[in-house]
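Fold it.
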Amino acid sequence: MPLVANTDLPSFGRLQSEGSLVIARDTAETREVRELHIGLLNMMPDKALEATERQFFRLVGESNQIARFYMHPFTLEELQRGREGREHVEKYYRSFEQIQSDRLDALIITGANVVDPALDRQEFWSPLIDVVNWAYGNVTSILCSCLATHALLQFRYGQKRIPLARKCWGVYSHRVRERSHPLVAGMNTRFDIPHSRFNAVTPQQFAEAGLKVLVESDEVGVHLAASDDGLRLVFFQGHPEYDANSLFKEYKREVLRFMGGDAGIYPPFPENYFSLQTRAILAEYRERVVDARNRGRELPPFPEQLISPSLDNTWHDSAESVINNWVGEVYRSTHPG
């Protein structure tokens, strides 16, 4: 069923142009169809703010549940933003106070970019706890992504994430561990999920917290887990919402940081992501960059147009299935009978 464009948020127009079913609010209000209202606490930095909106809006809107979806984005004032990010938030987002007065059925909490690995030293730590504590008693389900998962494992279960020896970065194969669980009903037993993180909560930590591990990778650990009631808290450690080019954009940012002198080493490739041909093109480009820097010459332009057409998305169907199952469980809980 469609997303309802309940505000002038540009992401609705962008999604509609990409083929997603988006209808105007006045059209939605003329028909008696059940609604689901889902909050999105978007903690991503400015450069990823709108892309993250679209990614989660798209997944929700692609659900085949018989309801219309109203999305309610908000953020935390304590997160540092530039002028454009602040203007976007002020124009299109709601405050947490307004969110509290809304009737939300569920809440999605995104990840965030932080430098200090100690989450309880972040300025947003206490406000995030306030949001989660409110939502725990006022919405049917909270779905946490990446850093939000790490934060909840720490302040609700006392399980602190563990720094990794190297960045977990790439696309990895996963298996369903609890095939009878409603969140993975009807899914393939093996599928890909992207990850991008410097820290991890281990399978042992999830078990010690009394959480059910539903999807796991032999290479990078837990992706999907849930609280023992099956719905109240849902945890992603990977990024099933990513677009086909999300890891590529991240790789490009790291290359540009190296070129600008902000990073000491040239970034490695995300694992299991680029084709052999793409890796060859990027390896050659790296040699040209290093040679130009050594000779004090102008750095070559990044070969983005050569790479973008070759990028594959091998995870979207599975991401869509999980979100469809999640939305379905929320729908059944909020619309019994």
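The chain has a mean pLDDT of 91.
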